[in-house]
Amino acid sequence: MLSQEAIEEIHHIAAEYPEPRSALIPALFIAQRENNGYCSPEVMAEVAQVLRLTPAYVRSVASFYTMIYKEPVGKTIVDVCTNLACMLRGAEENIHYISGRLKCPIEGNSEDGQCTLHAVECLGYCDIAPMMQIGGETYGHLTRESIDQILGEHTSNA
After folding, report:
1. 70-75 LR contacts (CB < 8 Å, sep 24+)
2. Per-residue confidence in pLDDT tens, the chain, 158 aa
3. Is residue 71 part of a domain?
4. What is 29-75 written as a DSSP string?
5. Looking at the structure, do residues 26 and 91 belong to the same domain, yes or no?
6. Is 70 inside a domain boundary?
7. Which terminus in the chain has less CB density within 10 A, N or C?
8. CATH number of the domain that 109 lies in?
9. Domain that holds residue 52
10. pTM to 2 decimals?
11. Are 100 and 134 contained in the same domain?
């Protein structure tokens, strides 16, 4: 559930917009930060109440965005771009390699709950394809060697 500080932060952000619903995405990120990295239906209902929106509206917006997590996620989230430029340069092989290294299914969590692996649509870095993001950090021109190094810096699973 949301802390009083989170509720105040959401109100502060909402005050910057002409319509409170315009603050929904930042509010969901605040809620996600507060609740172990994801937005449960109960948390989304609470966000709806704070912004005076319907829970159905909040769920519909949250369901559109892949970076609003609706299920529990690991401490380390690995997003691998699978759009055209990355696919042409080996994204499919990379994501399967990463899945094996992390012992983590694609679109799932590792057994120890430490890692989450997502195949995502374009992240906007076609010039460095194939690429991935970990915790918001972008890594491109991926090879098995660079993947091993990057995963080693971010996880204990690799």
Report:
1. 70/38, 70/39, 70/40, 71/38, 72/36, 72/37, 72/38, 72/109, 72/113, 73/37, 73/38, 73/109, 73/116, 74/104, 74/109, 74/110, 74/113, 74/114, 74/115, 74/116, 75/37, 75/113, 75/114, 75/115
2. 899 999 999 999 999 999 989 999 999 999 999 998 999 999 999 999 999 999 999 999 999 988 899 999 999 999 999 999 999 999 999 999 999 999 999 999 999 999 999 999 888 999 999 999 998 899 999 999 999 999 999 987 65
3. no
4. HHHHHHTTTS--HHHHHHHHHHHT--HHHHHHHHHH-TTS-SS---S
5. no
6. no
7. N
8. 3.40.30.10
9. 4-64
10. 0.80
11. yes
50 plus 81 within the same structural domain: no
Domain boundary among 24, 39, 64: 64
Q: Six-digit token pair at 25?
A: 């995405």
- Cα–Cα distances (Å) from 103 to 54, 78, 100, 141, 156, in that order, read 39, 13, 5, 23, 11
Which residue(s) pair with 106 in the sheet?
Answer: 117
DSSP string, 101-143: HHT--BTEE-TTSSEEEEEES--S-GGG-S-EEETTEEE-S--
